[in-house]
Amino acid sequence: MQKIRFDFNPMMAEFVGEHGISGQEMKDMLAELKAAHETVEKNRGQGMQGWMDLPYDQDDVVAEIEKTAEDVRREFEAFVVLGIGGSALGPAAVQQALNHLHYNELPADKRPGPRLYIEDNIDPERMAALLDVIDLKKTCFNVISKSGGTAETMSQYLIVLQALKEAVGEDYRRHLIVTTSESKGFLINVAREEGYKTFYIPDGVGGRFSELCPVGLLAAAVCKIDIRGLLEGAKDMDARCKSSNAMENPALFEAGLMVKAMEKGQNISVMLPYADSLKLMSDWYAQLWAESLGKNRTLDGKPCNVGQTPVKALGVTDQHSQLQLYTEGPFDKVITFLKVDAFRCQTPIPHGCEDIPTISFLGGKSHNQLIEAERQGTEYALYRAGRMCQTIALPEVNAQTVGQLLYFLELVTAYAGALLNIDAFNQPGVEESKLAAYAVLGYDSEKHNQKREEMKGRPSLKPEYQF
Ligand code: PA5
User: What is the mean pLDDT of the chain?
Assistant: First the structure.
């Protein structure tokens, strides 16, 4: 199996100078890192760490997913994921990584599966636009919600259900697959009553850690992605990160670096893939890192306000947008390059414009060379500016390397949570906005009515601040 590699040199003071982390600082942290490793290992497969078992305990589920995927490919022209947050970002990232960059636009005979749409927003125009481009008679919907109570997903379900009933009558059940918790929430009851094909999200797997369970695997398998390869990659990364000695465990070392960086005021984590195929990995990572580590209470209840703001960027595009800030702005960022050694195709640059040396120089080279040269140029510019950087290199983007990357970042997040002594697996800060939104919509329950009253207590808006 090809292995992803890590280069943490440009995080270190020896490399980038005063804003870097010294070797001694990392040595001093080794005992703390060992303890974080123990905490994570102790809870492996327990509580909300069920995601750590996913590479190992899904043989039957994978077989069932593959069988269902085959049926979907045979019967439908479009597959629509209805889900949000952890139920959407992983499927989107993996599809972008492992299928054609214009997958949906490919003619059917060149596409390995149905067109895939991942609908993670409730912008009214978006649902209308979706219904404009799909033929309901030939579309399968995968409703994904662990809680079964997420307003966005459940409202989408209601809209789609009605549309399907109008389009296909009693046959609508064949067009719906539900992925939800087996033991909690309302969606499982709906699925049982209706007799929908159902996949389960294990109790110990939270949304942002769910890509390697049916949440992500079904859409991937429908689009003919090698889901066994994804899981093998994850397993391989797990094996690489077994040691409690951070010098032998890349995810543990990385967690240590990032937490140390946070202590030094580097409060922003920029994910900068130099590959369009990895563009949506940044979106997936942003949720994983933000929702897991952004907390205001330690595990022992002490106030804290920790976390690091993830920024999604893309090389080379953002060299022409954000790089100026990264090189000359505040020293508040860690930049993580995602580098691909071998792209899946070569794009040679033809000769031309021979009388303009700066352009003709490009002739005979390739986009493969140019993107790598620009990546190295950016890395050098950041080095010269004394900025903390690191590189994760994928020999190529395939199911196994993507599985390694996903699991690596999940492990880093878990270790970082343990180092920060916070619960990396909950998201209490998201609940407040959900409650308030239902209160605004007029939901009648004691807690929503109270919230509505509380909301009236906000200071009134002053006209002098409105234009
Ligand atoms: O990571 C998480 O837990 C969240 O982002 C959830 O995935 C998101 O809120 C959707 O929740 P649910 O799957 O319950 O609909």
Answer: 97
- Answer whether 156 contacts ligand 1 (Cβ < 6 A): no
What's the 375 CA to ligand 1 centre distance in angstroms?
A: 34
**Ligand 1 atom 12 nearest Cα:** 145
Instruction: Give pLDDT tens digits for 68-90.
Output: 999 999 999 999 999 999 999 99
Nearest to 311 by CA among 357, 269, 257: 269
Q: Give pLDDT, residue 438.
A: 92
**What's the pLDDT at 412?**
98
Residues in the chain with pLDDT values less than 50: none
pLDDT in the model for residue 432: 87
Q: Give the Cα-Cα-Cα angle 119, 122, 125 (nearest 5 degrees).
A: 90
Give the pLDDT score at 209: 98
CB-ligand 1 contact for 273 (6 Å cutoff): no
First to last CA, the chain: 60
Answer yes or no: is the C-beta of 86 below 6 A from any ligand 1 atom.
Answer: yes
Residue 434 among the catalytic residues = yes
**Mind listing the pLDDT tens digit for each residue in 159-216?**
999 999 999 999 999 999 999 999 988 999 999 999 999 999 999 999 999 999 999 9
DSSP string, 181-209: -SSSSSHHHHHHHHT-EEEE--TT--GGG
Write phi, then psi, for 85 (nearest 5 degrees): 60, -125
Q: What radius of gyration, in Å, describes the C-alpha atoms of the chain? A: 24
From the number of C-beta atoms within 10 Å of its C-beta (0-12, 13-18, 19+), residue 165 rates as middle
Q: Token pair of 381, please?
A: 């510019």
> What are the E-state strand segments in 193-275?
197-200, 268-273
Characterize the bridge pairing of strands 388-394 and 333-340.
Answer: parallel
**Residue 219: which residues within 8 A CB-CB, separation 6 or more?**
79, 81, 91, 94, 95, 116, 118, 142
pLDDT of residue 321: 95
Greatest Cα pair distance in the chain: 76
91 CA from centroid of ligand 1 (Å): 13
CA neighbor of 86 nearest in space, from 205, 212, 208: 208
Q: How far is the CA of 209 from the centre of ligand 1 (A)?
A: 10
Cβ-count burial 250-264 (b if 16+ within 10 Å, e if not): bbbbbbbbbbbbbeb
Q: Is 210 in the pocket of ligand 1 (CB under 6 A)?
A: no
Residue 381 alpha carbon to ligand 1 centre in Å:
38
What is the reported pLDDT for 431? 86
